[in-house]
């Protein structure tokens, strides 16, 4: 891991000291799971389960906070079994799906999900002709239940297609009272309101944390970064981790620490586990 500032190093040390009353919040894609062309083929890093189980012993809870539907993250991450192992050792795994709209935990084991937003059906009706007009008819449209994601990664020029689509999709979303979440070669349209920062505050309030680490890689993680900054201003020990790639560095200027993709995130979590255990001796 590379500390971006001197403050980053101090913040890591403070988080180690507060680890047992801290939550470790982790994005999924690009943070625990390497980015792949087909999002349905994504898989959590093979060592992630083991790392999260060991980490959970040293912290108040581990939370996956993702734009994916909670059930999908559970399946792609093998998180049911990880949750079993964590619960057996007396700690907690939480999964917040669809930017905090859905919730699952190793204690409750069912996904709580609201109804899809009203405008989503009408947005979907208008989408094919929009894609045709933007010369992006082959874009992969992922229906996520509470949201729709338009992926440009598999098009001939993903960046150009993304740029052509962003304005018209934003316009159609706005007409249907929906909000737009741009990401890495993906434009997601969903209900306004909830974002990852709400999940951070919810956990901090429910668990009465003294510390919070959040690791992410993309624009959709910015609200979580902001929420963690708010906790820091309230006196909590915090650490913001950017899982960087050569493709996208949206969070770099806001982070305390930067690491190289999911493997780097796991290295940091292993180190945190060791350091937190050492302070307990
Ligand atoms: Mg991500």
Task: Please give a structural write-up.
This protein has 281 residues and is α/β, with parallel strands linked by helices. It folds into 2 domains: 2-114 and 194-279, HAD superfamily/HAD-like (Rossmann fold, 3-Layer(aba) Sandwich); 120-190, 2-Layer Sandwich (Alpha-Beta Plaits). It is 41% helix and 21% strand. The strands form 2 sheets. Strands 1-12-11-10-2-3-4-5 form an 8-stranded mixed β-sheet, with helices on both faces. It has a 4-stranded antiparallel β-sheet with strand order 6-7-9-8, with helices on one face. Bound molecules: magnesium ion (MG).
Characteristics:
281 residues, alpha/beta, Rossmann fold, Alpha-Beta Plaits, eight-stranded mixed β-sheet, four-stranded antiparallel β-sheet, globular, binds magnesium ion
Topology of this protein?
Elements: E1 2-3, H1 6-17, E2 22-26, H2 48-56, E3 61-65, H3 70-77, H4 79-88, E4 93-97, E5 102-105, H5 120-133, E6 140-143, E7 147-151, H6 158-175, E8 179-183, E9 186-190, H7 196-207, E10 211-216, H8 222-233, E11 237-244, E12 257-260, H9 261-280
Parallel strand pairs: 2-3, 2-10, 3-4, 10-11, 11-12
Antiparallel strand pairs: 1-12, 4-5, 6-7, 7-9, 8-9
Helix pairs in contact: 2-4, 2-9, 5-6, 7-8
The chain binds magnesium ion.
Condensed summary:
This protein has 281 residues and is an alpha/beta fold.
> Any idea of the CATH topology of the largest domain?
Rossmann fold
Uncertain stretches: none
Strand content: 15-25%
> What's the N-to-C terminus distance?
25 Å
What is the chain-wise order of helices and strands?
Answer: EHEHEHHEEHEEHEEHEHEEH
Gyration radius, rounded? 19 Å
Largest sheet properties: 8 strands, mixed
Q: So how many helices?
A: 9
Total number of beta strands = 12
Helix content: 40-55%
Structure ligands? magnesium ion
Instruction: Provide mean pLDDT, rounded.
Output: 94
Question: Shape from CA axes?
Answer: globular
Side-by-side strand order of the widest sheet:
1-12-11-10-2-3-4-5
Provide the CATH superfamily of the largest domain.
HAD superfamily/HAD-like
């Amino acid at each position: 891991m590379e500390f971006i500032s001197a403050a980053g190093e101090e913040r890591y040390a403070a988080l180690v000291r507060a680890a047992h009353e801290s939550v470790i919040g982790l994005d999924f894609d690009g943070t625990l799971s390497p980015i792949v062309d087909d999002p349905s083929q994504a898989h959590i890093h093979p060592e992630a389960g083991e790392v999260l189980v060991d980490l959970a012993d040293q912290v108040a809870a581990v939370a996956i906070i993702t734009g994916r539907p909670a059930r999908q993250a559970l399946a792609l991450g093998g998180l049911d079994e990880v949750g079993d192992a964590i619960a057996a050792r007396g700690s907690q795994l939480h999964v917040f799906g669809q930017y905090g709209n859905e919730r699952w935990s190793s204690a409750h084991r069912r996904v709580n999900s609201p109804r899809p937003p009203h405008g989503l059906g009408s947005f979907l009706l208008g989408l094919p002709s929009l894609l045709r007009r933007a010369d992006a008819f082959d874009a992969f449209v992922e229906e996520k239940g509470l949201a729709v994601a338009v992926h440009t990664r598999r098009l001939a020029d993903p960046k150009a297609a993304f740029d052509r689509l962003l304005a018209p999709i934003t316009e159609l979303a706005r007409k249907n009272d929906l909000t737009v979440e741009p990401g890495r070669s993906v434009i997601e349209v969903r209900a306004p309101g909830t974002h990852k920062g709400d999940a951070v505050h919810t956990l901090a309030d429910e668990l009465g944390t003294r510390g919070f680490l959040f690791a992410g890689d993309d624009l959709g993680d910015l609200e979580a970064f902001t929420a963690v900054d708010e906790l820091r201003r309230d006196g909590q020990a915090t650490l913001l981790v950017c899982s960087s790639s050569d493709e996208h560095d949206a969070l770099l200027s806001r982070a305390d620490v930067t690491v190289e993709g999911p493997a780097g995130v796991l290295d940091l979590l292993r180190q945190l586990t060791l350091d937190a255990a050492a302070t307990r001796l």
